[in-house]
Design a protein that fits this description.
This is Peptidase C14 caspase domain-containing protein. There is one protein chain. This protein is an alpha/beta fold. The chain has one domain: Rossmann fold (3-Layer(aba) Sandwich). Helices cover about 25% and strands about 20% of the residues. The strands form 5 sheets. Strands 3-4-2-1-5-8-9-15 form an 8-stranded mixed β-sheet, with helices on both faces. α2 runs parallel beside α7 and α7 crosses α8.
Length: about 325
């Protein structure tokens, strides 16, 4: 019994130490970049199936996240800057590829995304918030994002469309001075979760001794200004049909829970675009934070977060978030 006491005390200390910390910085303007790609417009002269499987829930993900984030931004009295990047449908003309109008739509090409992020870099201030959401394919071996192609004839080459974690984060997100949240609903997206002064990557580093050492190290935690939240670790991400009768309203499993966390309702098939006028369900006190969103998603998503021997499921999906013991306020009500 005596041997159990130190163990129990250590466990109690560990559990009580999982306190989340965040700064009380001024909440400035909000920039949102929402990306949704369905990959239906691959040209193929031989009329064969394209090399990128079509996705049905990605465009609804982007459109509805864009709308609910705009609603929350304006409701909390902050200035809004929105960029909706879509590839939707079968059109693969050169006019489609060149579409770049923040008011009517931006074609979701790699070049257009980098142009948007460069523009935000030139405008955003340290107190501002930048949220980037991506719903699309993730390459199996390394999680690379796959942007929409710009080829009007012939086959599509994936390599020029890929965006690696290091390219996106190091070259385009880190230089933005604002607080940033990158949200990825794609397969193997956990590779994007970076190591930081406050945490290690549970995907890239599987050594529990290193995690323990990071938690107990004596140096002060650094508060990151970039958080990354992903739909999965090293597994696939899945879609769910919210209206099985019509088979027309599909979302990512992760994005469905995220939309619910933000206050987006899907009551029935004919009335899909509703933002709850009340505070979002994921709110804690008066704050909506990265961690409060993550906790809500894990608790409410339709797939289990891990395989369970007692409740076996062929599909499971474990979302991840960076930051360790640190948290970041997104909105204050």
């Amino acid at each position: 019994m005596r041997k159990l006491i130190p163990l129990l005390l250590s466990l109690l200390l560990l559990l009580s130490s999982c306190e989340l910390f965040y700064d009380e910085a001024e909440l400035g303007d909000v920039y949102v970049v929402s990306i949704g790609i369905d990959y239906k417009n691959e040209p193929n002269d031989s009329n064969e199936t394209g090399i990128l499987p079509n996705l049905r829930g990605t465009v609804p993900d982007a459109k509805e996240l864009f709308t609910v984030l705009k609603d929350i931004t304006l409701r909390t009295g902050r200035n809004w800057h929105g960029y909706l990047l879509l590839q939707e449908g079968t059109d693969h003309s050169t006019d489609t590829f060149s579409t770049f109008d923040p008011d009517t739509g931006i074609y979701a090409s790699k070049t257009h995304l980098f142009t948007v992020l460069t523009t935000i870099k030139s405008q955003a201030q340290p107190e501002d918030l930048v949220i980037i959401t991506y719903s699309g394919h993730g390459i199996a071996e390394n999680g690379d994002m796959v942007m929409a192609h710009t080829t009007s004839t012939g086959g599509v080459a994936i390599e020029p469309l890929r965006i690696s974690p290091s390219l996106l984060i190091d070259q385009y997100l880190v230089p933005i001075q604002a607080k940033k949240l990158l949200i990825l609903d794609s397969c193997v997206s956990g590779v994007f979760v970076p190591e930081s002064e406050s945490s290690l990557s549970t995907v890239l580093d599987s050594n529990i001794d290193d995690w323990y050492a990071k938690f107990w190290e004596k140096s002060m935690y650094g508060l990151p200004n970039l958080f990354v939240m992903t739909a999965s670790a090293l597994t696939d991400s899945y879609e769910i049909d919210l209206d099985s009768s019509s088979n027309e309203h599909v979302h990512g499993v992760f994005s469905t829970a995220l939309l619910e966390a933000l206050g987006w309702n899907h009551p029935h098939a004919t009335d899909l675009n509703i933002v709850d006028p009340n505070t979002p369900p994921a709110i804690r006190g008066s704050d909506l934070t990265v961690d409060s969103l993550y906790a809500y998603i894990k608790k409410h998503q339709s797939l289990p977060v891990r395989w369970n021997i007692f409740k076996p499921s062929r599909n499971y999906q474990h979302p991840l978030v960076s930051g360790g013991a640190m948290d970041m306020v997104l909105f204050r009500f």
